[in-house]
Amino acid sequence: MNKGSLSYTTELSVRFNEADPLGIVWHGHYVRYFEDGREAFGQAFELSYLHIYKQGYSVPIVKIEADYKKSLKYGDRVIIETEYIPCHAAKLLFQYRLYNAATRELVAKGSTIQVFLDHPGNTLQLTNPPFYEAWKKKYLTSSDG
Predict the structure, then answer these.
(1) What is the DSSP letter of 75?
(2) Is residue 144 part of a domain?
(3) Torsion angle, CA of 133/92/4/101, rounded to 10 degrees?
(4) Three-state DSSP class for 113?
(5) In which domain, by residue range, is 96 found?
(6) Distance of alpha carbon 89 from alpha carbon 81, whole angstroms
(7) Looking at residue 71, what is its pLDDT?
(8) Helix or strand (DSSP H, E) at 116
(9) Is 119 domain-assigned?
């Protein structure tokens, strides 16, 4: 874990509709697992999409990367580690690691970048919104964020 970062771990079962006829998880669903991790992180650390929206902002993803290592199959359980990466810019940076819960093998890793848009104008925010600055002061133990 990086200095000053926060992480959250959640676990879920691979669902039937996520597998192809051979029972292997389709690659696009790994991105959904990243989102499942972000949602769980947001609920745990008061940074959910709904909380952000109530503050007058949205946070669309502008970049996503995924690096696939091994396949998951229908019936597997996946451990999702979501790590918030602090930065000075008005962005949300997350890194993800997905593990097969039974074998503890790394199956994928990735990252996302999200930016802040205000409502109703959808204007890109070049500085951190006040609520986000307050959130960073509350949750980050390092001055890196």
Answers:
(1) T
(2) no
(3) 140
(4) strand
(5) 6-139
(6) 23
(7) 96
(8) none
(9) yes
- Do residues 18 and 30 touch, judged by C-beta distance below 8 A? no
Residue 32 belongs to some domain of the structure: yes
Please choose, from the candidates 107, 85, 106, the residue with its C-alpha nearest in 3D space to the C-alpha of residue 95. 85
Q: pLDDT (tens digit, 9 = 90+) per residue, 33-87?
A: 999 999 999 999 999 999 999 999 999 999 999 999 999 999 999 999 999 999 9
| pLDDT band per the 50, 70, 90 thresholds, residue 142 | low
Residue 98 belongs to domain with CATH number: 3.10.129.10
The whole-angstrom separation of Cα 39 and Cα 47 is 9
Among 27, 28, 25, 1, which residue's Cα sits nearest to residue 14?
25
Neighbours of 26 (CB within 10 A): 12
Q: Is residue 1 part of a domain?
A: no
Buried b or exposed e, range 8-24, using 16+ CB within 10 angstroms: bebeeebeeebbeeeee
Contacts 24+ apart (CB under 8 A), 18-24: 18/74, 19/73, 19/74, 23/73, 23/74, 23/75, 24/71, 24/72, 24/73, 24/74
